[in-house]
Amino acid sequence: MRNVLGVLVPLVLAAAQASAQDLIRYKDGTPDQECEVVALNYRQVDYEITVGNKVRQQTDSKRVVEIIVDHNQSTFEFNQATSAMDGGAWDDAIEKFERVKRDPRARDLLKQTAAINIVRCQYAKESVQGCLAAIQSLRQAKPDSFFYLESAQYEIKACLAKGDVGGAQAAVNALQSKGNSENLPDWVKAADVLSGGLLELQKKWREALTIYRKYQSDKDSGDDAKLGELRCLKETGDWAGLSVRSEAILSELRNRKVPNDRLSTAAYNAHGEVNLNGGKLKEALLDFMQGVAVFSRSGASREHEAALGRAGFTCTRIALKEADPAKKALFKQRAADLRAELEGKYGRNSFYLNDLVRGIQEVK
Prior knowledge:
Blueprint: H1 2-19, E1 22-26, E2 33-40, E3 44-51, E4 53-60, E5 64-68, H2 76-86, H3 90-102, H4 108-124, H5 128-141, H6 148-161, H7 165-181, H8 185-201, H9 205-214, H10 222-235, H11 239-254, H12 261-277, H13 281-292, H14 295-298, H15 302-321, H16 325-346, H17 353-362
Antiparallel strand pairs: 1-2, 1-5, 2-3, 3-4
Helix pairs in contact: 2-3, 3-4, 4-5, 4-6, 5-6, 6-7, 6-8, 7-8, 8-9, 8-10, 9-10, 10-11, 10-12, 11-12, 12-13, 12-15, 13-15, 15-16, 15-17, 16-17
């Protein structure tokens, strides 16, 4: 029996490793493609599938929403770095991903993914200079990186985060110019949508709204445009418009094959703001908590941060109106719990923290 097991276990393990694959996920709802990604840039992804023999195929990069790396074909360092990143250990993850970039054994997909993950980690730890340096390194190593567009988006966000309007505008212009010169219209549209963020930074909400509404139905930039539209409608106090658009977006998302948790959370938040403004406090809390629940599935985001902060603040408004001491204490404690979660995930510089702290202090 021991001899039989000694033969079977290696065979089972080998079969499991052979069946493990990279996974290409598409924007348009096309079924995921199990394969081995062998080459990738911002125009094309080359991959191999096994149909008797290995067959090489290609797909347009703009169709791809995500490539999930097969960890059975990854280096130990890459897998350790990914685990550190998933746990929010940004510095540890960055150090390990840097080693992956220099590893001659690592295939191209690993090196490119490591490079963009360093950008993501630097941004997550709020190191603007580190993020910009990582973007420069990514482009130097691979000028036609599959992640070039994402790196440009992070460049603009990093400049906006430090209030560098000039730097952000230069990055938008560079992305637009590259899109035009290389016949990449989706990049041109992405740059236009990102310019809306510049207008938001300058509190030119209506001008930003005009840009966002151009792209509501666009298959490439539509979701980002909808996010911007919801933000601008809130800032202009257009509660009726915000109610109509948030409900329409939620209805659209329910019928989608490919979900967008950020947009879903933003739409719930927008509807929550409408209810909060209208004095429907418990309805507002339910809306915000829909966004809070998304974290377990999709992780941190600007929208999830807003959901946490506004849910906590809404709890304080309910507590202020409660005559029953036990219920008042219950909602105040819930607000305190949400405050702790907000600080734990987004730090003490969270945009939503001051309002929440003030709200808790008002409940006596």
